[in-house]
Amino acid sequence: MATDRPREPVLLDPKGPAITAIACTVGAVLFLGAACAFVYVTIRTVADFDRTDGGWVWAGAGLALAAAFVAYGGVSTILFARAERRATLQLATHGVDATVLVLSVSSAPPSNDDHDQIRLLMRVNGPGFEPFEHSGEVLKYLFGSATQGTVLPARVNATTRTFTIEPPPTPPAPQAGNA
Question: What φ, ψ does residue 7 adopt, rounded to 5°?
Answer without folding.
Answer: -65, 155
